[in-house]
Design brief:
Number of strands: 20
Shape: elongated
Helix content: 25-40%
Strand content: 15-25%
CATH architecture of the largest domain: 3-Layer(aba) Sandwich
Radius of gyration: 32 Å
Largest sheet: 9 strands, mixed
Oligomer: single chain
Number of helices: 21
CATH topology of the largest domain: Rossmann fold
CATH superfamily of the largest domain: HUPs
Number of domains: 3
């Protein structure tokens, strides 16, 4: 490469001319090594301005790309603030990836030209320096490689691995104190998520922002959200006329935060002034608001999907931000003056709007923002109640310990789920007590065990078509047979349920008795099974008896199929 490559020392020792330095990196995350060379360059008396370029600003969801550019911007600003470097001495420029290096370097060099950059700083040998050298072309800037004389032996990959491995003591020494509140508030969760293939990816296409403004009105105590209608001339698939939060596209090299504030003003007329973006949430205020308070601007998250019905025809992702203020709603309403974009911009009562469809994925954004900002309305009022509840049918597997009740119940639930049935599994409350070493404490209080078991079933009544349980109340009734009041309670509650009982006998050829989690040995279990069957008969319980869990699952599915067939005939 014809352009010379300087070390940090070479660069700062050169006192001959003023420098404008572009420093490009991914900063995932910003660590002590990054801080050392960045601060050294910024504090160079001949450095007029430093341009922090945040590479791969629209990449995410992968082990190498797992921190949003908005968070990385905050990290850089936090370091600069701690080192008393004025904001006027540096700028932050997000740089997206491009399909080819030619397109990428052309755009980066164009931005450098706008800033009149004299020095280009990067330690990325593989993706940048080696490629430039192979092209054998001269740049109109000096190149600084901070890796040449760096005494910091770690890379961002090492930092991410320490987070994944839980090596906090080692990690703590490598992270600047000022960015720890950012890294450990949300960012490290993203790093862990991508390590488990649960990262959030940016979707290819038009990259946008959305801003949610929630106002808790001091005059009525209600929470309102600012919405408007999208233009009617939007193409089909782009939600023409739909209610939406303010937002729009991010310009090339524009930070998501700046884009959100800009678009919010364009579409509402409300001016947000950024006071401190080195924190999460950032500190802002409304410029034209009389006696405006300090407010917090939160990062809500990244939203995007491959489903064009939800994501629109232009694709891409949206980075969502949110602000919750407490004040006089009318003051905010009076300042609404959209420049372009949304129409009919006004505040809506959250309780009335929460279930109405918004454009794109904005219902999900609003729901998360409400939870994050603790702006909880009584959303239940907005949920339409079904006129007719589901007629829940309960399959109750009973039997002695170790016969396979849980296996049968879980197997039946699995089969019904595969058939897309509305079904829930209810486990045995008493077994939880066994594993918690609490059963002996509560055995004398059978009414407690009965009520806790019934409560789970009761709460599901009318909400699902089927409940499958391995802990029928018939067993509780038998355990309580010495106390008539409690026994009668168990039978009373059982009769409130539309239930079919399947008695399982252990298949001794297939299943070995498992003592873990049980209070009975094998002989006691066999004896209890015989006693239970007699008890069911004497109380007129509708049941069938099968051997083994496989037969129990088969029987349950037959009972359900027959029931659905009869219901179908009745409907005809």
């Amino acid at each position: 490469m014809k352009t010379s490559v300087l070390s940090q020392a070479n660069c700062t020792e050169n006192k001959s001319a003023k420098k404008i330095i572009a420093v490009i990196g991914r900063w995932m995350p910003f660590h002590i090594g990054h801080k050392r060379f960045s601060v050294k360059l910024a504090k160079d008396e001949n450095c007029e301005k430093i341009i922090f370029m945040i590479g791969s600003c629209y990449e995410g969801g992968d082990p190498r790309f797992c921190i949003t550019a908005a968070e990385r911007e905050k990290m850089i600003r936090a370091v600069m603030k701690r080192e008393n470097i004025p904001e006027g001495k540096y700028d932050i420029v997000p740089v997206p990836d491009f399909p080819t290096f030619e397109e990428w370097i052309t755009n980066v060099l164009q931005k450098c030209k706008e800033y009149k950059v004299t020095h280009f700083c990067t330690g990325n040998k593989e993706d940048i320096l080696d490629v430039l050298e192979s092209r054998n072309e001269k740049l109109d800037m000096e190149i600084i490689n901070p890796e040449i004389d760096s005494d910091f032996p770690y890379h961002a990959t090492d930092i991410r691995n320490m987070i994944i491995k839980g090596e906090y003591e080692k990690l703590e020494e490598l992270i600047p104190n000022e960015i720890k509140p950012i890294l450990f508030r949300y960012t490290f969760k993203e790093i862990l998520a991508v390590s488990k293939n649960r990262g959030i990816h940016f979707i290819e296409g038009r990259q946008t922002v959305d801003m949610i403004l929630l106002v808790r009105n001091i005059n009525d105590g209600k929470v309102y959200v600012l919405l408007g209608n999208r233009p009617e001339d939007k193409e089909e698939g782009e939600f023409p006329g739909a209610l939406a939060v303010p937002g729009g596209g991010i310009r090339l090299f524009e930070t998501a935060t700046n884009a959100a504030i800009r678009k919010f003003y364009d579409e509402t007329g409300l001016k947000i002034k950024m006071l401190d973006n080195s924190l999460e949430p950032a500190i802002v205020k409304f410029e034209d608001m009389p006696n405006s308070n300090l407010e917090q601007m939160h990062i809500v998250g990244i939203y995007g999907t491959q489903d064009k019905k939800a994501n629109g025809t232009k694709g891409g992702s949206s980075q969502c931000f949110a602000i919750l203020v407490e004040g006089d709603l009318k003051q905010y309403q009076d300042l609404i003056n959209p420049q372009h974009g949304l129409t009919n911009v006004k505040f809506y009562d959250i309780e009335k709007i929460s279930r109405k469809p918004l454009a794109f994925q904005q219902n999900d954004m609003l729901k998360k923002a409400i939870n994050m900002l603790e702006a909880y309305p009584d959303l239940q009022k907005a949920i339409p109640r079904p006129e007719k509840k589901k007629e829940t049918f309960v399959i109750s597997f009973v039997g002695a310990s170790g016969v396979g009740k849980s296996t049968a119940a879980l197997g039946t639930t699995y089969e019904l789920k595969k058939m897309a049935k509305s079904v829930e599994y209810v486990d045995e409350f008493a077994k939880r007590l066994v594993y918690s070493d609490l059963l002996e404490k509560y055995i004398p209080n059978q009414s407690y065990i009965i009520s806790e078991q019934y409560k789970v079933i009761y709460d599901l009544q009318g909400k699902v078509d089927y409940i499958v349980s391995d802990a029928g109340l018939e067993i509780s009734a038998l355990h309580s047979s010495g106390e008539k009041v409690i026994e009668d309670l168990a039978w009373y509650l059982t009769k409130q349920i539309n239930q079919f009982t399947i008695l399982i006998e252990r298949d001794t050829k297939k299943v070995k008795f498992e003592e873990n989690g049980r209070v009975e040995d094998e002989e006691e279990s066999r004896s209890f099974g015989e006693k239970l069957e007699e008890y069911l008969k004497s109380n007129g319980v509708r049941y069938v008896k099968v051997k083994g869990s496989d037969a129990a699952v088969e029987m349950a599915l037959k009972v359900i199929a027959k029931r659905e067939e009869e219901q179908s005939k009745q409907e005809k």
